[in-house]
Write a structure and sequence with these properties.
This protein has 556 residues and is of the alpha+beta class. The protein folds into three domains: 10-265, Orthogonal Bundle (Peroxidase, domain 1); 283-400 and 512-543, Immunoglobulin-like, CATH 2.60.40.2440; 410-507, Immunoglobulin-like (Sandwich), CATH 2.60.40. It is 22% helix and 22% strand. It contains 14 helices and 20 strands. The protein has helices spanning 10-19, 29-32, 45-57, 85-94, 104-118, 148-158, 162-172, 208-215, 221-224, 231-236, 242-246, 250-265, 347-352, 412-415, and strands at residues 177-180, 195-198, 283-292, 297-306, 313-319, 333-336, 340-344, 356-365, 373-379, 385-388, 395-396, 402-404, 410-411, 421-428, 435-442, 451-459, 469-476, 485-491, 497-504, 519-521. A hairpin with a 5-residue loop joins β18 (485-491) and β19. The structure holds protoporphyrin IX containing FE. Residues 43, 47-48, 50-51, 54, 84, 86, 142-144, 151, 168-169, 171-173, 175-179, 182-183, 196, 231, 235 line the site of protoporphyrin IX containing FE.
């Protein structure tokens, strides 16, 4: 089926893959790009990340379906088979990124495709939907001292035949190397000073690992340094170099590694169904929020566009929810220019050559009118103007009964260091909910275990009503980790729930773009009221004001 907003968890996975960051802006991509070295070493962050993913999947057993990419590695780093400073560095890199819809094991997979792409490797396809293990799994990562028989059997148990074993090891060992003091029988050193002997001398995801092996110039420490520990030699030569010869060009190496890394990332416990490949959504709406401001409602939405040029401009249109123009009756639409915009990218969008910009809309909304649905008109600055209306159905604001109020919520850890989030919700004064509560989920916890709990909010009459809304307050008292996602639920007198869905505690205190001026129009060519189809038109739209390119972040 064609993509339609909202599509959780697809939206969350897509945002991570192409923008590289958590919803509050904290960037996983920035830890690894541009093919960064790990501080104090001559290996790359990408190499450390890729070794970790393989150690997670290496315990897969194809015959009973256990193990695979399930994040169990988070509970296994004290094992001898997982020795190496890179492991704990990597766990700490990943720790704050998983959320309700992006599991820890999906983060490990996304990190792998980032690491390969930012070191000039190919774009590996990514599917989501991995399910995390919450305990350690079986042991069984191959050891450099293993015999060829033992290595071959081990890879067969994981689901890889001999040529796939060779491909996987060659593609894995194009980055990074072996380090002292972690592997003192392979790499020489003294004291605690880190030395990394690189597999092929470069920090790039290139076929040097293959060409140097074939032409005899290799320096791979798992070939040349200690014959007992020469596992790369045993693996690479195990089919008389047929597979290595087939990978001995930039193109064949990139193609082979794409296929074999795709298979590695999709090696998951039986019973896990992965999503379709996560592809770029060309017009991507996010961070939609209706809330209560100081005297009226405030609506926020971001739209991310593939930029045709720097002169691409965009405007948001919407219909009232109530009153004489409800649902754009009489053709009346409101519209506004963005309050700001921000270039966003990940190693994947960069490697694909797409330029993305997120336009941020913040508009005041009269509570008596509220908002029913919105859409965008995009002028690409090259004569093409497009109505982006969610495939004809517009972006529907499904309810305004209960609204999270981030400006009146607080992260207690920022205030006092203690666990907890104070949450304030606004509920329509005309309704009498039997219960208002928050359903909270945290995955970026210190013990790596997901946390899911509900907390009741209570009517708080000490806060004066605003714009026909009264306030309910309460506190999520447990440790949900660095970010928590939650739904705010009001149970109506008739038993039906109104839900403000997938709110992000990480957004508390993040300043919004400036609010824009609201205009009205009855023009017929801007989508909305009539439209099941995208209307294209040219020329008219040049009047949208110059956008501020400033993105401000400040904390309460
Ligand atoms: C025969 C199987 C394998 C053996 C015996 C083996 C062994 C090793 C050893 C001993 C190191 C040094 C680790 C350190 O010093 O921290 C290493 C590094 C590495 N391995 Fe493997 N490996 C194998 C397969 C793989 C596979 C299949 C991949 C990925 C697809 C992989 C990816 C890496 C990476 C990227 C590094 C560099 C890490 C860094 O620079 O921090 N390895 N491997």
């Amino acid at each position: 089926a064609d993509y339609k907003w909202p599509s959780l968890p697809y939206d969350a996975l897509e945002e991570f893959l192409y923008e590289g960051a958590r919803p509050d802006g904290s960037s996983l991509a920035d830890l690894v790009r541009p093919c960064k070295l790990r501080g104090g070493t001559n290996t790359t962050v990408a190499a450390e990340w890729i070794r970790l993913v393989y150690h997670d999947i290496a315990t897969h057993n194809i015959s009973d379906g256990t193990g695979g990419l399930d994040g169990s590695i988070f509970f296994e780093t004290n094992r001898a088979e997982n020795v190496g400073a890179g492991m704990n560095n990597t766990l700490s890199d990943f720790s704050t990124y998983p959320n309700k819809y992006v599991s820890r094991s999906d983060i490990i997979a996304i990190a792998t495709v980032f690491g390969v792409a930012t070191c000039s490797g190919p774009v590996i396809p990514f599917r989501g939907g991995r399910i995390d293990a919450n305990v350690a799994g079986p042991t069984g990562v191959p050891d450099a001292g293993d015999s060829l028989d033992s290595l071959t059997n081990n890879f067969a148990k994981q689901g890889f035949n001999v040529s796939e074993m060779i491909q996987l090891v060659a593609c894995g060992h194009t980055l990074g190397g072996v380090r002292y003091p972690d592997f003192p029988t392979i790499v020489a050193g003294s004291g605690q000073t880190t030395v990394v002997d690189l597999f092929d001398g470069t920090q790039q995801f290139d076929h040097n690992i293959v060409s140097q092996y074939l032409d005899g110039s290799t320096r791979d420490p798992l070939i040349v340094l200690n014959q007992t520990m020469a596992s790369d030699l045993r693996v690479f030569s195990s089919d008389n170099n047929v597979t290595m010869q087939s990978m001995n060009s930039a193109d064949s190496f990139a193609q082979t590694c794409t296929t074999i890394f795709d298979k590695m990332l999709n090696t998951v416990p039986s019973g896990v169904t992965l999503t379709d490949e996560i592809t770029l959504v060309p017009v991507k709406v996010s961070a939609v929020q209706l809330t209560v401001g100081t005297s009226q409602l405030q609506f926020q939405a971001n739209v991310r566009l593939v930029m045709a040029s720097n002169s691409t401009t965009v405007s948001m249109y919407w219909c009232d929810r109530y009153g004489s123009s409800a649902n754009c009756a009489g053709g009346l639409k409101r519209y506004a220019a963005p309050g700001g915009s921000l270039a966003v990218s990940s190693p994947i969008s960069t490697a694909m050559g797409v330029t993305l910009r997120r336009f941020q809309f913040v508009v005041p909304i009269a509570a008596s009118q509220s908002i029913a649905k919105f859409w965008f008109v995009v002028d690409y600055g090259n004569g093409t103007t497009v109505v982006a209306d969610n495939g004809g159905s517009d972006y529907v604001v499904d309810q305004d009964e209960v609204l999270w109020v981030p400006s009146m919520s607080r992260d207690k850890s920022v205030l006092t260091g203690a666990n907890g989030i104070f949450v304030t919700a606004a509920v329509k004064s005309s309704s009498t909910p039997s219960r208002v509560y928050i359903d909270c989920f945290g995955r970026a916890t210190t013990d790596f275990l997901p946390m899911n709990k509900t907390y009741d909010l209570a009517l708080n009459t000490s806060i004066p009503a605003v714009a026909g809304y009264t306030f309910y307050t309460g506190e999520a008292t447990d440790d949900f980790g660095s970010t928590m996602q939650f739904d705010v639920v009001a149970v109506g007198a008739d038993g039906t729930n109104s839900v403000d869905t997938y709110r992000q505690s990480g957004l508390i205190g993040v300043a919004l773009a400036p609010a824009s001026t609201v205009n009205s129009t009855t023009a017929g060519n801007v989508g909305g009221a009539s439209g099941a189809e995208n209307v294209r038109f040219g020329g008219w739209f040049g009047m949208v004001g110059v956008m501020s390119l400033v993105w401000t972040l400040s904390y309460l």
